[in-house]
Amino acid sequence: QVQLLESGGGSVQAGGSLRLSCAGSQYTYSSMGWFRQAPGKEREGVAIIEGGGRPSYADSVKGRFTISQNNAKNSLYLQMNSLKPEDTAMYYCAADITYYLTGGRLYFTRANYRGQGTQVTVSS
Protein backbone atom coordinates (compact mmCIF):
# COMPACT_ATOMS: atom_id res chain seq x y z
CA GLN A 1 0.00 0.00 0.00
CA VAL A 2 1.51 3.28 -1.12
CA GLN A 3 1.49 5.78 1.71
CA LEU A 4 3.42 8.68 0.20
CA LEU A 5 3.71 9.70 -3.43
CA GLU A 6 6.13 12.38 -4.58
CA SER A 7 5.87 14.49 -7.71
CA GLY A 8 7.37 17.64 -9.16
CA GLY A 9 10.95 16.65 -9.80
CA GLY A 10 12.70 17.49 -13.03
CA SER A 11 15.70 19.14 -14.64
CA VAL A 12 16.49 22.83 -14.27
CA GLN A 13 19.45 25.12 -14.70
CA ALA A 14 21.28 26.56 -11.75
CA GLY A 15 19.35 29.43 -10.23
CA GLY A 16 16.02 27.93 -11.22
CA SER A 17 13.14 26.70 -9.08
CA LEU A 18 11.12 23.55 -8.58
CA ARG A 19 8.24 22.66 -6.29
CA LEU A 20 7.98 19.13 -4.97
CA SER A 21 4.73 17.68 -3.70
CA CYS A 22 4.06 14.66 -1.54
CA ALA A 23 0.56 13.22 -1.31
CA GLY A 24 -0.14 11.16 1.79
CA SER A 25 -3.03 8.98 2.89
CA GLN A 26 -6.03 9.99 5.00
CA TYR A 27 -3.86 9.60 8.09
CA THR A 28 -2.58 12.74 9.84
CA TYR A 29 1.13 12.33 10.37
CA SER A 30 2.96 13.59 13.46
CA SER A 31 5.79 14.89 11.30
CA MET A 32 6.68 15.04 7.62
CA GLY A 33 9.92 15.86 5.92
CA TRP A 34 12.17 15.59 2.90
CA PHE A 35 15.49 13.89 2.57
CA ARG A 36 17.72 13.40 -0.46
CA GLN A 37 20.40 11.09 -1.69
CA ALA A 38 22.82 11.57 -4.53
CA PRO A 39 24.85 8.72 -6.06
CA GLY A 40 27.91 7.98 -3.95
CA LYS A 41 26.83 10.32 -1.16
CA GLU A 42 25.20 9.69 2.17
CA ARG A 43 21.56 10.38 2.79
CA GLU A 44 20.89 13.98 3.84
CA GLY A 45 17.89 15.36 5.68
CA VAL A 46 16.65 18.50 3.93
CA ALA A 47 13.72 19.83 5.94
CA ILE A 48 11.10 18.68 8.42
CA ILE A 49 7.91 20.02 9.92
CA GLU A 50 6.22 18.68 13.05
CA GLY A 51 2.59 19.06 14.04
CA GLY A 52 2.24 22.49 12.50
CA GLY A 53 5.28 23.75 14.37
CA ARG A 54 8.21 25.69 13.06
CA PRO A 55 10.13 23.81 10.39
CA SER A 56 13.78 22.84 10.60
CA TYR A 57 16.20 22.95 7.69
CA ALA A 58 19.66 21.72 6.90
CA ASP A 59 22.07 24.64 6.61
CA SER A 60 22.78 23.62 3.01
CA VAL A 61 19.24 24.63 1.96
CA LYS A 62 18.28 27.26 4.54
CA GLY A 63 17.07 30.44 2.91
CA ARG A 64 16.52 28.73 -0.44
CA PHE A 65 14.03 25.94 0.32
CA THR A 66 10.64 26.24 2.05
CA ILE A 67 8.70 23.30 3.44
CA SER A 68 4.95 23.49 3.97
CA GLN A 69 1.93 21.29 4.62
CA ASN A 70 -1.74 21.30 3.84
CA ASN A 71 -4.22 21.94 6.68
CA ALA A 72 -4.94 18.23 7.12
CA LYS A 73 -1.20 17.63 7.64
CA ASN A 74 -1.16 14.70 5.25
CA SER A 75 0.43 16.36 2.24
CA LEU A 76 3.78 18.06 2.02
CA TYR A 77 5.50 20.51 -0.29
CA LEU A 78 9.02 21.73 -0.87
CA GLN A 79 9.57 24.97 -2.73
CA MET A 80 13.14 24.99 -3.96
CA ASN A 81 14.59 28.27 -5.20
CA SER A 82 18.08 29.31 -6.28
CA LEU A 83 18.89 25.71 -7.07
CA LYS A 84 22.52 24.66 -7.30
CA PRO A 85 24.16 21.70 -9.04
CA GLU A 86 24.94 20.23 -5.61
CA ASP A 87 21.17 19.98 -5.00
CA THR A 88 21.03 17.25 -7.63
CA ALA A 89 19.69 14.10 -5.96
CA MET A 90 16.73 11.81 -5.56
CA TYR A 91 14.33 13.52 -3.16
CA TYR A 92 12.18 11.45 -0.84
CA CYS A 93 9.19 12.35 1.26
CA ALA A 94 8.98 10.76 4.71
CA ALA A 95 6.49 10.79 7.58
CA ASP A 96 6.38 9.99 11.28
CA ILE A 97 10.07 10.73 11.56
CA THR A 98 12.57 10.50 14.39
CA TYR A 99 15.30 13.04 13.79
CA TYR A 100 17.91 15.33 15.23
CA LEU A 101 19.58 18.51 14.08
CA THR A 102 23.22 19.09 14.91
CA GLY A 103 26.04 21.04 13.38
CA GLY A 104 23.68 22.44 10.78
CA ARG A 105 22.84 18.97 9.51
CA LEU A 106 19.51 17.20 9.75
CA TYR A 107 19.52 13.47 10.45
CA PHE A 108 16.47 11.25 10.00
CA THR A 109 17.12 8.19 12.15
CA ARG A 110 13.76 6.55 11.54
CA ALA A 111 10.76 7.13 9.29
CA ASN A 112 7.66 4.99 9.49
CA TYR A 113 6.67 5.97 5.96
CA ARG A 114 8.56 7.06 2.89
CA GLY A 115 7.87 7.51 -0.79
CA GLN A 116 9.61 6.16 -3.87
CA GLY A 117 11.40 9.42 -4.61
CA THR A 118 11.49 12.02 -7.36
CA GLN A 119 14.65 13.01 -9.23
CA VAL A 120 15.92 16.58 -9.18
CA THR A 121 18.73 17.46 -11.57
CA VAL A 122 20.35 20.90 -11.60
CA SER A 123 22.75 21.73 -14.39
CA SER A 124 25.39 24.46 -14.27
Short description:
With 124 residues, this protein is mainly β.
- The mean pLDDT is 94
Rounded to the nearest angstrom, the radius of gyration is 13 Å
- What is the helical fraction, as a range of percent? under 10%
Strand segment count = 11
Textual characterization of the structure:
The protein has 124 residues and is mostly beta strands. Helices cover 0% and strands 56% of the residues. It has no helices and eleven strands. The strands form two sheets. Strands 2, 4, 5, 6, 9, 10 and 11 form a seven-stranded mixed sheet that branches. The radius of gyration is 13 Å and the shape is globular.
Protein traits:
124 residues; mainly beta; seven-stranded mixed β-sheet; 0% helix; globular
Give a topology summary.
Layout: E1 5-7, E2 10-13, E3 18-23, E4 31-37, E5 44-50, E6 56-57, E7 65-69, E8 75-80, E9 89-102, E10 105-114, E11 118-123
Parallel strand pairs: 2-11
Antiparallel strand pairs: 1-3, 3-8, 4-5, 4-9, 5-6, 7-8, 9-10, 9-11
